[in-house]
Structure formats: C-alpha cells, structure tokens
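DM between two lab members

TW: hey, do you still have the FecR family protein entry open?
JB: yeah, one sec
JB: this one, 392 aa:
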Amino acid sequence: MPAQVGRSWFLLPVAALLAAAPLAAQPAAEPMLRYTVRPNDTLSALARDFLVGGDYREIQRLNKVADPYRMPIGSILLIPDRLLRTEPVTGKVVSFRGSATIDGRQAALGSEVRQGMRVETGANASIAIAMPDGSTIALPSQSRIHVDKLRRILLTDGLDRNFRLETGRSRSSVIPMKDPASNFRVTTPLSVAAVRGTEFRVAVDDSGERALTEVVAGTVGVAAGPAPAEVAVPKGYGAISTPAGTEPPVALLPPPKLIQLEKTATGVSIVVERMEGAKAYRVELATDVAFLHIIEEAQTEESSISFALPPNATFFVRLTAVAISGLEGLPGIYAPGVRRASPPAASEPSADATGAAPPPFRLWAEPRPLPIRLTGHGTVQPLAIAARTSLR
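TW: and the structure you got?
JB:
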C-alpha cells in the first residue's frame, strides 16, 4: 500500500455531496467520506486495510466502479461512514468545579472522556476537556453534551470529533487543522457548527426551539433546517438557528467595560458599564487567562454583581453582554496592574514591556478598590495578549 500522507477527503452529508457532483442516489442524510483515489489504490486493498468487514463490493456498486483493480487517479470515491475503520481518541478533563459528571460519575482531573460518553454540569459548576491536539471544549453550569464521535479514521489518519449539545452552552477553542482529514463539530437538535480552527460558542435556549452560534475568532459554518445550506458566520458575528433554518449572521455586542472592581468583606464587587442593546451581562472569574479554570460565574440583568471569595483569591475577569436576541457578545478579559509602594526605576521594565500576560487579580486583606487593566478580547493564548490599556 502507498503511504497515507496527503490523502484528500471530506466527510459530508450526502445531500451536500449530491449538490457537488452527479452521483448515485443514496439514503438521505447518511454521512459519507469523499475520498480522492491515489496512485496504486485498488478497491480490494482499501477495503482490506481500512473498511469494516473488508468487503469492497458495496463501494463498487455505490460508485459504479467498472474495474476495482484499475481506478483513475484523482477520481472520487464515496464511502459510507459506517464502513470506515476507526480507533478511539481520548480527551481528558483539565479543569472542573462543582457537580461535573461523566456518565453520571463525578469528574476528576485527568478523567478520560471517550466517544459515547455524556458530560454534564450542575448548578454553579463547570468542566473543560482537552483533546490530544490541544483543542478544548468547556461547559459552564447547567449544560450537557454527548460525545457522538471522538475517533481517528484510519484511512485518512484524521481526527473526527463531534459533540452534541443537548442543553445549556458550550465554548470551544479549536487548534487550526493543517490536516484536511480532521474536523471539529458541535451539533444541537437544530444545527451543526463545523470549524477547522477557531473559537466559538454554541447554546440551546430554554425553549429548545433556537440554537445560537457566536464566533469569537475565525469562521464557523452553520447548517440547520429541512434543506440545510451552510451559512458562514465570521469573527464577531452570531447566528440563530430554528427548525426553519439559520438566520443571516448579525454583529455581536462589543465587550462591556469594567468600571469598578472592589474588595468587600466577603469577596469582591464588580460594576459593569451599561450597554445599549444588552439585556444582561455574564461575569466569569477564572484563575487562568484561557478561562478553563473558572471559579465563579453568573448572569445578571443589573450592572453590578458580588461574589463571595476566599481570602487571597487570585483571578481574571471576563465580561460579555447578552443581546435582546439572546446572542452573547464578544468577551473582554481584565487583569490588574501591579500595585507597589513606589514607582519603578527608570531602568526597570514595565509589565507591558515584557510581552507576558499580566498576573491575575489578588484580593488584599482590607476592602479597597483594585487596579483594573484590559488584557484582550477572547484570546485563549496568554502570551498573545498585548492590548492592556489601563482603565484607571
């Protein structure tokens, strides 16, 4: 067999494939792999090494191949997903708090997440799961996903990852995929969001009649409805999907401004500047700038909110505004300057000059206002955060 590097393929619903090329009719919605024939490929060898059962005759009939031992190089083979040989891929829990369960069992750091499992968070809980390539999917409180697919396809060596959001919200940060044989999808009962490298959120509202996709970085393809046509949702935009289809993308609200952060006797008080078009604000505290390790979160219709925190807690603050439509806006991530007894010497580099992410907030022993700095909007690579304009 020839080396597998460079094999070209796509995994698409049959309706999309039929629109792209005149192929034999297939059962509606059966997923197919679209494989490009390479030199020395034969149907019998492909079936023997990469297909369940090793029988090539269904592929021959499906694609109307006259000679299974002589196929034109560059021609396309459609291979049903159910016939592909795969091997499991394992995700691991990198952060959790509260009641976060995997198949009904309490999660722990390093817990494995595999295909077929269900991950769920209770009230005031969260969980973050990392994939082998560094991509992550995180769930805030009151959310549930089913891991429909988490596997490697042997024919292409591509990662096939599909998470079905059953209730609540999810946030995904996907490492750009240089290999065309990989994908990352978040589906809901109403929509499919597919990406090749980006940061995005998917939510199902309480009615169950709307799925919301919000794109923080990159572009997400969203398909929904009885005759789905993929809608491209770019960075800074969101789209609402219903049983009828996906609506045109709309601009997300900008990051809210944090105008006051003050230590209280029991924790911290946060005041957000009110924003036109916002019906609520989401406030999250985390110990890391990537917001995988969340310690507190809440959504409020007021411009101020308080959290009870232990002494000496350290944290970053992330704020988003929720539009009247329900779409959550772009995030603003905040961290402090360095409080010190005297100004730094002229030869001493400033915190901004180092290029490193600023430290998180630290709560002082006595209630007092804390310094505030804006670190960025939605970035998940700490060293890439550069815009740290002081708000004081």
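TW: got it. The chain has three domains: 9-84, 87-251, 258-384. The chain is about 5% helix and 45% strand.
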